[in-house]
Amino acid sequence: MAMPRKIPVDFGLVFPHGVWAVGEVTPVRDYDRSTRDNIIQAADADTGLLMWQVDVIDGDPEVRKTNRTVSVKICAKVQPVLPEAAPGVPFRPVEFDKLTATPYVDQNGEFSRLAWSYRAMEVRQPSKSRPAPVLAGEQKASA
Length: 143
What we know:
The protein is built from 1 helix and 9 strands; from the N terminus they run βαββββββββ. The protein is mainly β. Strands 1, 2, 3, 4, 5, 6, 7, 8 and 9 form a 9-stranded mixed sheet that branches.
């Protein structure tokens, strides 16, 4: 069996401290089909759905500053709507459903590193009942 290119992952495993949207949902540009004068929105190759993206800040205090902001792509027929922000707060807590992670090599000059591209099928307000994920090698405490 071959390893899938897009690996299904649980939101709580990738973002155990949650994420906050720091902007609006915007269309993803199809750079192969767009021109300077005619911008075409990208579509997901697997589903045919339009691609949207939103920048989020990872709530993990251990994440390095350079990795704290992540762009998550969302597949949807129409532009997804983010949950309302609390009054006076510029950030919106969000969760992603049907999340996948795709590894790629990020090259910056002479340096390379493994990076991840995230794609989801839905964005919504965080669930308060979501249990904390159990990481490999950990055991849940018995009651």
